[in-house]
Design goal:
Layout lengths: L5 E5 L3 H12 L3 E6 L10 E5 H9 L3 H7 L1 E3 L1 E5 L7 E6 L11 E5 H14 L3 E4 L3 E6 L4 E5 L4 E4 L1 E4 L6 H5 L7 E13 L7 E6 L2 E8 L4 E9 L8 H12 L5 H7 L7 E10 L5 E2 L2 E3 L5 E2 L7 H18 L5 H30 L6 H13 L3
Parallel strand pairs: 1-2, 1-12, 2-8, 5-14, 12-19
Antiparallel strand pairs: 3-7, 4-7, 5-6, 9-10, 10-11, 13-16, 13-17, 14-15, 15-16, 17-20, 18-19
Helix pairs in contact: 1-4, 1-8, 2-8, 8-9, 9-10
Length: 376
Amino acid sequence: MPAVSNVLVIGAGAAGTAVAILLAEGGVSVELVDVKPDVSALGSGITLQGNALRVLRQLGVWDQVREHGFAFDTLGLRAPDPNGTLVAELEDVRTGGPDLPATVGMYRPDLAKILVDRATDVGVKVRFGTTFTDLDDDGAGVTVRFSDGSSGRYDLVVGADGVRSTTRAALGIELEPRGTGMGIWRVFTPRPQSVTRTDLVYGGPCYIAGYCPTGDSTLYAYLVEDWQDRTSLTPEESLEVMRGLSEAYHGPWDDIRVGMTDPARVNYTAFETHVLDGPWNRGRVVLIGDAVHTCPPTLAQGAAQALEDASVLAELLLASEQVTDELWDQFVARRLPRARTIVEASLQLSQWLLNRERGDVPGLMAEVAHLLSNPA
């Protein structure tokens, strides 16, 4: 029998829905709650590399991801010149194995809906607009009181509620994300035919100007700058700032800019980071995903590392007969070094850019690709 018979998962992002699906498929009764009112997620697009696709296939949703997303196997590098000259086309590493593409871009809310629908299909009880108000862990289980007045008792609680995790705070774990000095503009917009993969431009007024196709007719584009407090800008002003910054970039950017017309599709966030040096549990409450490790998007590994957490945690719980310290030691031993390596590599790439330093980017990327090509 699995180590647990009933589990509460807090947070319906990639990590939470993934662990809920895998545990439910293994015969565990699972409840999934999220404070948001529905499945739609804030954001534009998401880049899913091969190691993320490997877990999505394990979850039984790969066919839907392939249908709704846009797959590609190369990466382009362009110059910040008047023509947006293509200077290199690199074959990307298929970190999920030879039978999966190197990368899939897709609309983030589409992925969220696919995962929540899959969770429901395998028997997970999903409640939106609900969160916990109290966690009482007595060593044998956790009694949870919810914001809707209900309560329940669970063998285990999984906190997968993001970078500013309320579960983490309730456990008394002092871990706050810190800014890296960079901010990123993102826009979700129509895909011109000139965009068939991710291309990156280094230089110009921004550190990085890039884009990723997310479907037959959509993409998200992004510009990375020095962090600034942009909270006072209206949506219309934000659109104008992003359009203005993008004027320095050409080639496909000239086509992308034509479609940058909807202020509601623009958002701006800081690059943030943190890592919780183990353990990731306190008694029978365990944290996964962004709640324990957050990295800047320079490696596009945030969702992938969250999905890997979910896969490893579910594997250990389903293979064990009891929740023991040894189980938690195994979980952290398999996940912390890998997640920390990804965070540190993401930070190194960011620091090289901030310092205007030519670091060994190919060497670092090869090291990361080798690591990720081995399943978590």
